[in-house]
Design brief:
The chain has about 325 residues and is an alpha/beta fold. The chain has a domain of about 210 residues: Vaccinia Virus protein VP39 (Rossmann fold, 3-Layer(aba) Sandwich), CATH 3.40.50.150. It is built from twelve helices and nine strands. Helix 6 packs parallel to helix 10 and helix 7 packs antiparallel against helix 9. The radius of gyration is 19 Å and the shape is globular. Bound molecules: S-adenosylmethionine (SAM). The site of S-adenosylmethionine has 20 residues, from helix 1. S-adenosylmethionine binds next to helix 1.
Length: about 325
């Protein structure tokens, strides 16, 4: 289903989307400084807290999701950047630390307030950092304003994606770059490979068997869904998870010159199993790093993964 800004139901979908991400942020802020607020300084308030929720655990998250491509390809020292679907603003914040004037755009006013409040005491005031509310299904950008536009894992929430790509192209200076990371449709061999790794839950030392059964059931359900639907992106979560990755990839190729297109995270099931297991933190990170090395080898040899990263150049 595609959320259409002209439909009557659109406002209530926006409300649901806002509620969902506000709740997520409140949940994570209670535990510490979440990674999506401050990537470099993210931490749990209680060092002893062994959160098994990988999205709240900075070290686990960083081992699983390598953001170096996104960061490095988006950095143009002294340049102007725009971070789309920025959430509480980690990417904009990092680019600002690297010496860029940055704007972040986000649908959710609560996330924008938190992002701006957190920026008040930042050190490098010589470069600007500002977050604003914007619905990217409706936004109009200024012509040729930015050197870089970037987005982390949020384009699949914007139903008018074709329109957004055209706006992005317009807003970039000649030769400007659009860098993004996105979930993609998973292919069938990869999904099957991931099912085969499910017995790992036992090796990974899950303490509670009911928890194991529940986890295995949801992983199998998710993987079967992908196989049956030939891999169309599946994410159960917020109201706006509605743009298939194939659409995003085809827009990228339609409106931009592709300089780099790279895939990662093929063996997401074993990595997630380890991340959520009851192994101790150091062991978890060691295992995840090991699996991610295998993952890179798979991707270098033509396997697809859960994520795609693009460096696109304005035509
Ligand atoms: C998966 S989160 C990614 C957030 C951030 N980029 C990050 O890496 O943490 C998706 C974000 O997209 C935002 N979003 C959803 N629909 C949007 C829209 N139409 N316009 C702007 N932002 C939107 C949500 O509020 C949410 O913060």
């Amino acid at each position: 289903m595609e959320a259409n800004p002209n439909d009557n139901s659109y406002d209530s979908l926006v409300e649901d989307e806002i509620k969902f991400w506000s709740k997520e942020l409140i949940k994570s802020i209670r535990k510490g400084i979440p990674i999506n607020l401050d990537y470099s300084n993210s931490r749990l308030f209680k060092a002893s807290e062994k959160s098994n929720d990988l999205y709240f655990h900075p070290e686990i998250y960083k081992a699983m999701y390598d953001k170096s491509f996104l960061l490095n390809q988006s950095t143009i020292e002294g340049g102007k950047a725009l971070d789309l679907v920025c959430g509480p603003g980690w990417l904009a914040r990092e680019l600002n630390r690297r010496g860029m004037d940055v704007e972040g755009l986000e649908l959710n006013p609560f996330l924008v307030d938190v992002a701006n409040l957190y920026s008040k005491n930042r050190k490098n005031k010589e470069f600007s950092l500002k977050y604003s509310v914007s619905d990217l299904n409706k936004a109009f950008f200024e012509k040729e304003k930015y050197d870089v536009i970037c987005a982390d894992s949020g384009l699949h929430h914007v139903s008018k994606i074709d329109r957004l790509f055209r706006q992005i192209s317009k807003a970039l200076k000649p030769g400007g770059r659009f860098v993004f990371r996105e979930h993609i449709d998973r292919d069938v061999p990869i999904s099957i490979l991931n099912i085969i790794t499910l017995p790992l839950v036992f090796i990974a030392g899950y303490k509670n068997y009911w928890k194991v059964a529940k986890k295995a059931r949801s992983l199998i359900k998710e993987t079967l869904y992908m196989v049956i639907n030939r891999g169309e992106t599946v994410e159960w979560g917020s109201a706006f998870e509605d743009v298939g990755a194939s659409k995003i990839v085809s827009c990228a190729k339609k409106y931009f010159d592709v300089k780099i297109e790279r895939y990662s995270f093929s063996i997401f099931t074993p990595v997630r199993i380890i991340a959520e297991s009851s192994l101790d933190l150091n062991k978890k990170i060691k295992w995840i790093n090991y699996l991610m090395r295998i993952d890179r080898k798979l991707n270098q040899n033509g396997f697809y993964g859960e994520c795609v990263e693009f460096l696109l150049i304005k035509r």
